[in-house]
Batch of 3 targets.
Target 1
Amino acid sequence: TFVGSEIKIDKEFVTGEVAPNIFAGFLEHLGRCIYGGIVDYGNTKLTNDKGFRTDVAEAIKELDMPVMRWPGGNFVSSYHWLDGVGPVDQRPKRPELAWLNTESNEFGTDEFMQWCEYMGTEPYLCLNMGTGTLDEALAWVEYCNGDKDTYYANLRRKNGREKPYNVKYWGVGNEVWGPWQVGQMTKENYALKAAQWAKAIKLLDPTVKLVACGCNGVDEWDQHVVGETFTTHDFYSIHLYTTSQDHYKNVFQPAGAETAIQVTSKLAELAKITNMTNKKFLVPLTEEQKKKEYKIVFDEWNVWDPIRADGEHGAEQQYDFSDGLAVASWLNVFIRQAKYLEMTNIAQCVNVIAPIMTNKDGLFKQTTYYPFQLFSKYFKNGQSLNLSVKSPIYKGDVGDFIGLEWVKYVDTSLALLDVSAVYQPAEKAYYVAVVNRSEDEDAETKISIADAADSLNVTEWAYYHENIRAINTFEKPNEVVPKESKVTISNNSTYKFPKHSFTLLKIQE
Ligand code: AHR
């Protein structure tokens, strides 16, 4: 047991509000995410009249995701949206170049929109900047959002949808910097093309919000593209996956995402200052742009072990309890850095590196499902608090990210106790999330809340399994689940956080 750790909480120290979109999702035409996950044509036992998997829908609804990104991912870089609209039996089957599969196009734009309406979630579409053209992108925006008597708006009406879908979020390309990308670009190429596309798209529909394509937030790409897209785009996207077979590397790597968010937000600040002061810019910033924060859309994140889950096998990963703790640490990062985040999208939602796994007869919820569910349910709209945390520091090696060797060398917090907290004024309650990342030591931790009563009513969700390699399966779906209980604690007293555990505390004021 380590003693002497402490968490000091004061609701006056608010850093920002937790946007509900921090709990958004992502679906890609990859493996069994769409076909066999979201829809399961012909499986009449588990689908509704549209072919939507109702069990998957229920499980995703419990994660309460306000936005869903689609259709990729890498898939989008050779996707032609026109192939996926109109009578299903006339849609072409196409080779797709990201995952080298055949796309049937049975699930296209209208099916995705119907699914979003059925789920009560908002669509976020990503544009094809690989094989796609600006004309094709404009046509897609018109198909979705056009309300006039124009060709693609009329095509949507002909396909059975009178009202526009009013899609707000549009991603301007996906990972176009990647060597795996059809149509890989240099940062200079992208900056120019993204500005041209943004201008045209906003002329067509000024209500849309455009997300520029970033890298991991700290790359040379980001150093260039943040500044170049600052005036033309609304948000800046970054992607990061963490992984390791080693428990400590697994649970500490999300700390790198915290650095990535901080660096990107500083780049955005610098972009604003440069645009305001650099005389070479002929068009001065508008008053609105001077106030702009250029927030981050972290639209792909998760634990993903490319060895356990390679693209060839549909990126299906069996998550263990250590991975569940890593996801809790990821979410702690997002809560602490909430003020910089417009949205984050867990990649992905079903079957493909996902918290939900299906077969023809049902599904089970992976170890990564429950931390997401608890955070999504209790942290939305909360006031993220600047905490004082005293914790032993991990001294071992935290390894490399995929391509992010720098993480070892920067000042990233390697505190064994990983904590975030919000205050929910409407409930007059604190929600405190604590991951004890130590593999073998419990933590006796003092919890102090400023200006609170001596005796506090607490609801505890304890997420613990003695074996960090424990998994849920179709046969044993409830091997790893959180346990809820009620306790009373005294302010300024110690609380025990078991070794390798995630604990959520609701502390009533
Ligand atoms: O989510 C899986 C893949 O990871 C996405 O297609 C791509 O954008 C990223 O490299």
Target 2
Amino acid sequence: MITTDVLIIGAGAAGLMCAAQAGYRGKSVVVVDMGKKPARKVLISGGGRCNFTNENTSPENYLCQNPHFAKSALSRYSAQDFIDLVDRHGLKYHHKSLGQLFCDDSAQDLVDILMTECEWAGVQVNLRSEVLSVTKIDDGYSVTTNETSYQCKSLVVASGGLTMPKLGASPIGYKIAEQFDLKVLETIAALVPFTLHEHDKERFDGLSGISLLTEVTSENGTSFKENILFTHRGLSGPAILQISSFWRAGQAVTINLLPEHNLSETLSQWQSEQGQKSVKNLLATLLPKRFVEVLVKDGVIADKPIKQLNHPEITALSDYLHAWQIKPNGTEGYRTAEVTLGGVDTDELSSKTFESKKQQGLFFIGEVIDVTGWLGGYNFQFCWASGYACGQAV
Ligand code: FAD
């Protein structure tokens, strides 16, 4: 049996950040993780280069039943604080669009930084250690793993969400919360590609790989102007991943296929300047040709010279392409999702320390709680911020 001040379940972004902070405060800290390697999601994130934060992070970039919950932690540990940390370690990184920061070489560089911080702070990281059960004892908690058992004063649950089961995702965090009578909100796969109904899959067969700039809007009015990507299963790309967090089964999404144009004006201009040319050939200068061909086959785009379009036809075509409606069949689910929406209800936790209001010494941080960021480095920033706040409090 091993005794420690702080036991952290999960050597992911949130757990490792929390561990280093607590260690620097002189606490004895052990992190247990069932994986063979630490921070496996950091390693695969951002296509192997990890989009580790977003310079424009603000509480508005998060979904949570209590929109105020993340404010305190995000303000006490900002994107700039994390940038300062990686700068001290000499990480090479670059800025992409929309405030996103990525490692130049490999996400492994970031994992090395987290592990170095843990080493400097005297943290013990025990891998291949699966937590099997947790019990409350007089002065803290007893935790049994497949290897040994631990006694700790503070128990931090940083076990993540349900995405990517093959990378060790498990529901243990939710189970521990429920064991101690904390409410867990329904979990849903988010930042995830859409699958399409059979008839749409047939219509778009052959479009796989086509990407175009759009503005996608959900039924609740949230919209993102980014690319969509046709895949052999359905629709993906950043705009689709973003909107998936706001989409619910049975709803439609509206896609402005030409967000940079006023199509009815363009069509009228074409009529006066290039009247003999066909509608489809002209539209193929704005949209991918294969996609235009699908719309011709559907009868949406008339196969005739543009001068033959009458005013109602111009309006109808413009409305259609500016507000293309698509009703997804579902999503690809946890297998490919980047995050889990829902989780431990933030009403159960202190927004300053992340400690359970009901259960002294029990903390939840990172993705296991009901705080879900947009695509773009926001999820890691919440891991750093919640890990930091909790590490100061345990
Ligand atoms: P996790 O990283 O999931 O860590 C939890 C740990 O707990 C795991 O290591 C797991 O092995 C361990 N664990 C679980 N159960 C047990 C148990 N019973 N016993 C012991 N250990 C256990 N976010 C961004 O901000 N930027 C990106 O570029 C980005 N890209 C992503 C790409 C992909 C493909 C995916 C899937 C996600 C991406 N995300 C990204 C989201 C981000 O990875 C997560 O939000 C973040 O990793 C959550 O960190 P965490 O520490 O809360 O949990």
Target 3
Amino acid sequence: LLIVGVIGAAFVAFQWSGPTFDPESLKGARVLVTGASAGIGEQMAYHLAGFGAQVVITARREKVLQQVAEKCQVLGPQKALYIAADMANPSDPERVVKFAVDKLGGLDYLVLNHIGPSPFTMWDGDVEHTRWLMQVNFLSYLQMAKTALPTLKQSKGSIVVVSSLLGKMSSPFVAPYTSTKFALNGFFGTLQHELAMQRSNVSITICILGLIDTDSAMEKVRGMTNIQAWPASEAALHIITSGATQQTESYYPWFWYYVCLIRDWFPYFRDMSLRNLYKY
Ligand code: NDP
């Protein structure tokens, strides 16, 4: 009864938390989205353009970015600019933020979403890959946040960090990737505290996603698991609305919130279930 009561209270608190999303609030908003040539980032660019936001998108492949920007321009009358950059290059994160601030005349949202490719296999002892992935998936986020913070303070803006359930729970086959997501949750969780203690007007939203049906994710897990994947366009909309309503943490799909809430209650069964999700 106690357990049911706790879960019920948490459910009600979760469902009622935060303001409702007003699409008008994004009209003219200046948004930088990373990893926007494909997957969830690309879908976010389309939603934002539809809401009338001004977007700068970035990723490595310039030709693909150009196509995404052109589609944004059709969906919304506002600016849709792009800049090619490789987040493995330590000088690119700052260069991208400066480009966006310069072209948009400031910034309201910094949406950190990109990830570098990483194998879906048991760890083979490759430390160098994890070091490289840390730069792409983690350190570049810090560099961009640092560069954007003074501008975001002026605009009462937001940083939106796209994270994963794999930043909350360890799981097989993703050691380097999961490390970068745990690092993100830890770092930006701390920054949330510190900005609140300084009474800063900059908000940070951390989005925790389950499996999403992007091409890259589906390619990795095909034949390995039957976990249900959720639509990238819905995930993208969820991230945007969570950022626009300044939630500190959000979950898509929603039920992963409850899984995270009770994940340490029965560790043996949790770990057995996690391993049984995969064919090996
Ligand atoms: P994708 O692999 O589909 O897209 C990754 C994006 O990052 C692409 O635009 C890619 O473009 C860009 N990118 C890759 N390497 C670099 C680099 N070195 N420098 C700059 N940009 C780079 O990812 P998803 O859409 O699947 O995931 C988006 C976010 O959602 C990630 O943060 C991921 O961790 C999170 N997430 C996804 C889940 C899923 O199941 N899909 C589950 C949980 C979380 P290009 O190749 O042109 O550089």
